[in-house]
Amino acid sequence: MNITYKIDKIKKNNWLNIAFDVSKDDLYMYSEMGEGAITCVEDSFSNRPEIILGKLEDLYQTAVRAGYEGIHIICEPSGGYECKLMLLAAQQGYATSYVSGEASSKFRIVEGNSNDKSDQRDPKVIFKLAQYGKLLRHRILETAYEQLRHLNRMHEQEQELKTYIRNQLHHELKVLFCERDWKEAFWYGVSGRAVLKLYQGNPYKIIKAGRSRFAQRMRK
Fold first, then answer.
1. 126 exposed, middle or buried (CB, 10 Å; 0-12, 13-18, 19+)?
2. 76 C-beta neighbours (distance < 10 Å), count
3. Coil, strand or helix: which one is 71?
4. Among 9, 11, 56, 31, which residue's Cα sits nearest to residue 128?
5. Which phi and psi (to 5°) does residue 24 adopt?
6. Which residue would you say has higher pLDDT here, 178 or 163?
7. Alpha-carbon distance 55 to 43, whole Å?
8. What secondary structure letter does DSSP report for 29?
9. Taking residues 155-161, what's their average pLDDT?
10. How far are the Cα atoms of 92, 132, 151, 163 from residue 137, in angstroms, in the given order?
C-alpha cells in the first residue's frame, strides 16, 4: 500500500469559496459553509457594480461570523462579463480565481449527467472544481502591461482578419477568372497589381476596354 500526502491549500487559507456563474445581466452564486451539517448558500442578483459591492460585503461579513478569514471569489471566463465581478472583488481585497471553461463543461457531465448549461446548476459545478483545487490564477496587471496585452490581442485579431480577407479575395478571383490558371502569387506581382489597379479585377471592365487596349495598358 502506497501512502502519500498533500496540502489542502484551500482549507489552509481558511477562505470561504463562493462560486459564480456570470451572464451579461445577472450573477448566480453558490457556496457551502461548515462541516458535518453543511449550510448551502444560493443567491442571484444583477450584474451591476453597486449591487455587486453590496453583496460582496454581505458575503464577507457572513463568512467572518462563520469563522472564515475572508472570501474567495471563483468563476469561469464568460466573454468579458466576469471582469466587473473579479475587478471589484480584487479591489476590495478578496481572493479571486478562475476555473477553466473546458473543465466546467466536462465536470458538468459528471455532476449532472448532462452538458446543458444551467444558471442555477453551474455555480455548484464551479464550486466543486474549486474544492478539488482546479483553479486558475486571476491576475490584475499594471496599466502598461494590461494595455500591452490588449494591444497584442488586437494585433493578433487584425492578422487573423487580414488572412481571412486575403483568402476570400483569392476565392472570388478564382471564381471570376476560373479559366485562368493563375497562382495566388500572380496577384502580388506587377501584372496582378496592374489588373487590380486598372480594372479592379472586374472581367467585364477588361472586356469593355477591348483586347488591344487591355494588352497595351498591361504592357505599360
1. buried
2. 22
3. strand
4. 31
5. -60, -40
6. 163
7. 10
8. E
9. 91
10. 17, 15, 21, 32
| pLDDT per residue as tens digits for the range 16-60 | 999 999 988 899 999 988 777 888 889 999 999 999 999 999 999
Between 89 and 178, where is the model more confident? 89
Write down the residue that cell numbers 457531465 correspond to. 109
* The model scores a pTM over 0.90: no
DSSP 8-state secondary structure symbol assigned to residue 38: P
d(C-alpha 184, C-alpha 118), whole Å = 48
Residue 74, number of CB atoms within 10 A of its CB: 28
- DSSP sequence for 95-128: EEEE--HHHHHHHHHHHHS-----TTTHHHHHHH
The label of the residue with cell 487584425 reads 158
Q: Is the dihedral of CA 118, 124, 128, 129 positive or negative?
A: positive
Kindly calculate the radius of gyration of the chain based on its CA atoms and give it in whole angstroms. 29
How far apart, in whole angstroms, are the C-alpha atoms of residue 32 and residue 127?
Answer: 9
Q: Counting runs of H as helices and runs of E as strands, what totals does the chain give?
A: 9, 6
- Tens of pLDDT, residues 165-193: 888 887 887 787 777 776 767 777 788 88
pLDDT reading at 116 higher than 70: no
CB 75 within 8 A of CB 95: no
